[in-house]
């Protein structure tokens, strides 16, 4: 009887460890999108903000799944953001949806710094068309270089790098109702 009890306790502990490992694979977004994670920030990590502007169409565009180093960290609709912390170094960022290929880029981050990445459609190169699309869906920042030109050309959305002050201001706009 004692062996059965010990075996039950051991199985329970193993189950909790597996459950805990599974939860750490995907970054927590809280109950509402747009909430920052409750982790303590350390000076040994970099903070990465991923955002989608509200735009005039609101939630009409498809959601975008964000991954860092191949691990999903969240899914964003318009007017939302997520925050993740990663150690300094080179990281692979990707964004995609069910309608197109993932856009992938690499970014070098430094400890204690914050980085802001806006997710928006590709710029077409036609100023009037881009102005209309970005007004409807949202889009600010400097386009980031795709890791693969072919995959980048076939992706629906991409990352735009925002300067820290502009990124922080956009996060504040997203936080206000």
State the main characteristics:
177 residues, 4 helices, disordered N terminus, alpha+beta, single chain, 4-stranded antiparallel sheet
How does this model look, in words?
There is one protein chain. With 177 residues, the chain is an alpha+beta fold. The chain is 29% helix and 32% strand. The protein has one domain. The strands form two sheets. Strands 4-1-7-9-8 form a five-stranded mixed sheet, with helices on one face. The chain is globular and about 40 Å long. The N and C termini lie far apart (59 Å). Mean pLDDT is 74; it is low at 1-39.
Q: How many domains make up the coordinates? A: 1
Helix fraction, binned, reads 25-40%
Sequence of secondary-structure elements: HEEEEEEEHEHEH
Task: Specify the biggest β-sheet.
Answer: 5 strands, mixed
- Taking all Cα atoms into account, the compactness measure Rg is 19 Å
> How many DSSP H or I helices?
4
Number of strands: 9
| Low-pLDDT segments, ≥5 res | 1-39
Strand order of the largest sheet: 4-1-7-9-8
Mean pLDDT across the residues is 74
Task: Give the N-to-C terminal Cα separation.
Answer: 59 Å
SS-derived structural category: alpha+beta
What proportion of the residues form beta strands (DSSP E)? 25-35%
Compact overview of the structure:
The protein has helices at 2-25, 127-137, 149-153, 164-175; strands at 46-52, 64-68, 71-76, 80-86, 89-96, 103-109, 114-121, 142-143, 157-162.
């Amino acid at each position: 009887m004692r062996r059965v009890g010990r075996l039950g306790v051991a199985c329970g502990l193993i189950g909790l460890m597996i459950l805990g490992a599974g939860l750490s694979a995907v970054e927590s977004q809280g109950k509402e999108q747009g909430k920052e994670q409750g982790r303590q920030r350390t000076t040994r990590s970099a903070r990465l903000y991923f955002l989608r502007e509200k735009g005039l169409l609101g939630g009409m565009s498809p959601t975008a799944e964000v991954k860092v180093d191949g691990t999903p960290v969240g899914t964003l609709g318009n007017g939302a953001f997520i925050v993740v912390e990663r150690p300094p170094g080179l990281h692979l960022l990707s964004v995609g949806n069910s309608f197109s290929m993932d856009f992938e880029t690499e970014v070098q981050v430094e400890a204690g710094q914050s980085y802001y990445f806006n997710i928006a459609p590709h710029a077409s190169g036609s100023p009037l068309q881009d102005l209309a699309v970005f007004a409807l869906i949202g889009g600010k920042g400097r386009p980031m270089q795709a890791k693969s030109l072919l995959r980048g050309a076939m992706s629906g959305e991409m990352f735009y790098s925002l300067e820290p002050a502009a990124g922080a201001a956009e996060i504040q706009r997203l936080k206000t109702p």
